[in-house]
Design a protein that fits this description.
- By secondary structure, the protein is of the alpha/beta class.
- It has 2 domains: about 180 residues, 3-Layer(aba) Sandwich (Rossmann fold), CATH 3.40.50; about 110 residues, UDP-galactose 4-epimerase, domain 1 (Alpha-Beta Complex), CATH 3.90.25.
- The chain is about 35% helix and about 20% strand.
- The strands form 4 sheets. The chain has a 7-stranded parallel sheet, sandwiched between helices. A 4-stranded mixed sheet has the order 8-15-14-13.
- It is globular and about 65 Å long.
- The protein binds NADPH dihydro-nicotinamide-adenine-dinucleotide phosphate and guanosine-5'-diphosphate-rhamnose (GDR).
- Guanosine-5'-diphosphate-rhamnose binds next to α3 and α6.
């Protein structure tokens, strides 16, 4: 039975990857952070009671800022594959916590690699690094591929650039099987609530049920190449099943604007939006409503405005990936379209909003969380 260790197992990708590896018969170990309340919602459905024997899913407390902790876990688990998905992964937040982001996302990767080496495991462990299209930042070539020069535009991207190169360096210096998946944006119903797609699907679903009044957005002109996280974790596993470690771009090869994603999400709720105004005065008005999915709304309501709070000090305006190498060498193609993904996300958020609304109607004093 192969053993895998996943940092960031409680995150979006970590949870899908853990499911995939369990299906493939792996013994899966994950690192979770200590928090003041439970933070394992995304993996609770695969949780195994620690009192049961022969568990194949085990969680360890840990943190990418803690070398001794990482070393101990690696020594205890003796993994065949390590997936480094743990990160302060929010680009906008990285401007507010740049040093922490560098420590976790940059030096954290070094800590893991060096622990593997010092434990003498560098020839038997295969290492996957969650690299990112944010490395391309101010894009130097369209579409972006493995050879496109990097130009990071945020503390997050700069930290991930260090991680990218230290992975290449350990591969070249010590012969480690270590590779970078340069993944473009990927989403799902498990996406963190403050990333743009989930903010939109959740926000509009809440508004449709009267739980919130208005969605406040940043730069809606930004263009992204969005895929589904389930498709992308499959590729993370495939990258570790080769004879030689290589870096791959993972993307769909199609890009859309944030505004387009808003239009699709509204349509899933039976709402047609009309965008009016320009710049920070831009807002969206309900033009028509079909069906019963948005009982709290009326034609003419303004349900979206721009809030400059969500603009970034330096923006990545456009990202478009070229996944040709992954297709040719690994036979990987994404199976879920961005429109299908949007429908899945809206359906999940609508269900949750309807449940909240029902509870409120029955006198329960609960509120939805906000950023
Ligand atoms: P999430 O933000 O959903 O998950 C991040 C995970 O890292 C969480 O489990 C989080 O724990 C954990 N984490 C945060 N800080 C630390 C720390 N100091 N020590 C240990 N663990 C920590 O991200 P995604 O699942 O979306 O992304 C996975 C990885 O892929 C990240 O590295 C991200 O930067 C990268 N990436 C993501 C892309 C995307 O579009 N989703 C695209 C390209 C790269 P907790 O749950 O406690 O917060
Ligand atoms: P990104 O994802 O920065 O690409 O990083 P995010 O969804 O946060 O932003 C995408 C684009 O939408 C614009 N935007 C807003 N973004 C947020 N979060 N909130 C808003 O209100 C808003 N309005 C407009 C942003 O300015 C941006 O242009 C994600 C993360 O998962 C990283 O970890 C990963 O490396 C990259 O994708 C690839």
């Amino acid at each position: 039975m192969k053993k895998a260790l996943i940092t960031g197992v409680t995150g979006q990708d970590g949870s899908y990857l853990a499911e995939l590896l369990l299906e493939k018969g792996y013994e899966v170990h994950g690192i979770k952070r200590r928090a003041s309340s439970f933070n394992t919602q995304r993996v609770d459905h695969i949780y195994q009671d620690p009192h049961v024997e022969n568990k194949n899913f085990v969680l360890h407390y840990g943190d990418l800022t803690d070398t001794s902790n990482l070393t101990r876990i690696l020594q205890e688990v003796q993994p065949d594959e390590v997936y480094n998905l743990g990160a302060q992964s929010h680009v906008a937040v990285s401007f507010e916590s740049p040093e922490y982001t560098a420590d976790v996302d940059g030096v954290g990767t070094l800590r893991l690699l060096e622990a593997i080496r010092l434990l003498g495991m560098e020839k038997r462990v295969k290492f996957y690094q969650a690299s990112t299209s944010e490395l391309y930042g101010e894009v130097q070539e369209i579409p972006q591929k493995e050879t496109t020069p990097f130009y990071p535009r945020s503390p997050y991207a700069v930290a991930k650039m260090y991680a990218y190169w230290i992975v290449v360096n350990y591969r070249e210096s010590y012969g480690m099987y270590a590779c970078n998946g340069i993944l473009f944006n990927h989403e799902s119903p498990r996406r963190g609530e403050t990333f743009v797609t989930r903010k939109i699907t959740r926000g509009l679903a809440n508004i449709s049920q009267g739980l919130e009044a208005c969605l406040y957005m940043g730069n809606m002109d930004a263009l992204r190449d969005w895929g589904h996280a389930r498709d992308y974790v499959r590729m993370q596993w495939m990258m570790l099943q080769q004879d030689e470690a290589e870096d791959f771009v993972i993307a769909t090869g199609v890009q859309y604007s944030v505004r387009q994603f808003i239009v699709w999400s509204a349509q899933e709720l039976g709402i047609t939006l009309r965008f009016e105004g320009e710049g920070i005065d831009e807002h969206a008005v309900i033009e028509s409503i079909e069906g019963e999915k948005a009982p709290a709304l009326s034609v003419g309501d303004v349900i979206l405005r721009v809030d400059p709070r969500y603009f970034r000090p330096a923006e990545v305006e456009t990202l478009l990936g070229d996944p040709s190498k992954a297709k040719a060498k690994l036979g990987w193609t994404p199976e879920i379209t961005v429109q299908e993904m949007c429908a899945e996300m809206v359906a999940a958020d609508l269900k949750s909003a309807q449940q909240y609304s029902l509870l409120q109607k029955h006198g329960h004093d609960i509120a939805v969380a906000h950023e």
